[in-house]
From TrEMBL:
Catalytic activity: L-glutamine + H2O = L-glutamate + NH4(+)
Domain Cyclic nucleotide-binding stretches: 469-589
PANTHER family: GLUTAMINASE
Record protein name field: Glutaminase
Lineage top rank: taxon: Bacteria
Family per similarity comment: Belongs to the glutaminase family.
Keyword Hydrolase in record: yes
Amino acid sequence: MPNVVDDIVAEVAALCRENRDGAVADYIPELASVPADEFALCIATTDGYVYESGSARTEFTIQSISKPFTYGLALADNGPAAVAAKVDVEPSGEPFNEISLDPVTERPRNPMINAGAITSAALIHGADVAERFERIRRCYSRYAGRELTMNDAVYLSEAKTGHRNRAIGHMLRSFGIVTGNPDDAVDLYFRQCSIDVTCRDLALMAATMANNGINPVTHERALATEQIERVLSVMTTCGMYDAAGDWVARVGLPAKSGVGGGVLAVLPGQIGIAVYSPRLDAHGNSVRGVQACSELSKRLELHFMHVTRAARSAIRSQYTIAEAPSRQRRTDTERTTLSQFGNRARIYELHGDLLFAGAETAVREITDHGDDLDAVVIDIRRIDDVSAVANRMIADMQAALNDRGCRTALVDPDGMLGRTTSSVLIDDPDGRVFVDIDAAAQWCEDVVLDRYCFVDRQPKRVDLARHPLLATLTSEQFERFALEIERRTFTRGEVVVRRGEQASGIHFLLEGQISSTLTDAQGRTRRVATLSPGMSFGEMALLVAEPYLYDVRADSAVQLAVLPAERFADLTASAPGLKLALLERLAAGAYAQMDSAIRSIALRSGGF
C-alpha cells in the first residue's frame, strides 16, 4: 500500500504539473516533436526501492545527462591525472554549448559542458568508434541495471544538425586536446547523447552514484568509489551549467540536466532523484525538473549541507511479543493465546540519526506489514537526532495504521518526537508514549488479548481462597493462613511501599493493578513490572531480609491481603507445614518469572 513518501512524491508531482513555462528543445528536430507536457518523477533509495509518479517508464534520450557517466568512464580508463591534463573542473559561467576554452589553461573548463564532454568521449579506450560506444553503452547499462539502447532517429537528427559541436571538436583538435580525428569524438558524443532511458532508469543511475558506485538492485559495481566522488564533485559545481550556483544554494544536490528534459540529482549515501519534463528554461534545464528537485529538497530536507551523517537503516531489530513477552504474569489461556496470535503485535527498535532515508526505510517496512498486525510499537530510545520530515513520516504512518485498525505506540523516554511520555497502562488513548519497552510490550499483549482471548482472562478480582499462591494449601492450612493476614486498600497513584523501606510482608493482590517502578537520575519514572489480581510481591525482600529495591504504586483502586513479616516468621514455630507449602509455591513462581524474563531479555539483546 502507498506510504507517506508516495504521498509526498504525489504532492510535488501535482504541484509541478501545473507549471507550463518553458519550451522543448527545437534545434534538434527529433526533440522538437516530443510531447511538451510529459512528466515523471522518481526517487530511488540506496536499497533499490523506487517511488514513481507520472510517465516513469516512458523512454527519452539521455542527452547531456550522459556527461558525468562518460567522464567517470574516462577517469577509470586513464586515471585522474591524465584526464585533468585534458579537461578542467571549474565552473564556466557560460552556456553549455559555448565555443571556448579557458584562456589560461587552454582546456575545456569542465566535463559538463559540450567541449569537456567531447573531450571525455575522446578519452574512452577502444579500437574504433563502435567499440568505444559499446563500452559506453554497457557502462550506462550497469548504472541503470538493464540493457540500454541507442535511439537511431535522434542520433541521425543530431548528426545531421550538430554543426556547432563539430566546430567545438575541431577547436579541441587545433589545441591538441583531442589528438585523433575530431569527427570521431563528436560522433561518439552524439551516440552517447542518443541512448534511451526512462525516468526510473535515471533514478536508479543516480542511486548507484549515491551508493558509492554499486547498483542497489543488481549489486554490480559501475564505478570505483573514489571516481564517483570526483564525478559528484564536478556535478555539484558544474552540472547545471550557468545556473549551477543558484542550484547549489537552493537545492543543494549534485545534479545534471539534459535538453531531452531529464534532470538527475544525487544525495550521497541516501537517494537518487530523476525528473522528466521536456519544457526547458533559458539555461537548457527542465523547468519542472528544477522545480520538483527544489520542492523535494525543501520537503525532505535533502540539502547536502543539512546532512551530518551518512544514512543507514533505521531499524536496529524487530520482534513480536510472542518472541519477547513482557514481564506481566498471565493465565495459562492468555499465554496460549499470545503464543498463537503474538505475531500480530511487533516491536521495531530504531537507531542512529532519523533523517529522511532512515525514516523511509522504517516507514516502508512497517507499513508493508501493517495489514498483518494489530499493534505496533516503535522504540526510538537509541535515536540520536530526528529531522522534521522523519517526525512527520512517523506521525502520518501511525495515523494510517490506526485507520486500518492497527494500534500504535512509541517508546520515547526523552521525548525525541515532542510527545508526552507515560508508562501508565490504564485509561490511555491510542497513540500512547511509553518510557520503557516492557510497558509497551505489555500494552501490545493487552491489545492482542482483547481481540483474541475471550475466556480465562486475568480476573479483575480474586478471592483470597482462589489466589494462585494459595492453591496448593489444604483447607486446614488455608484456615490457619487466613487468621494471619491483614486487609489493606489503596487509591490510584498511592504508594504501597517505597524503595529502601524494610520488607513488611508478602502482599497478595486481590483487586486492581499495581506497578513496581524506579526513578532514574533524570527524574523519569521507569516501570519494572505490573501486577494484576492473583499475583504477589514483597516475598523476595522478606526472604533475604533486605529493603525494597523499588517503589510500588497503585495504578487503580487496589485491595491487598498482607501476611506481615513478623507473622510469617512466627509460622516457623506455630505452623511449619504451612510455611513450607508457602515457600515451595513462592520458589516455583519466582523461577517461572525469572525464566520468562531471561528469555525476553536474551531476544532483545541478541541472545546470550
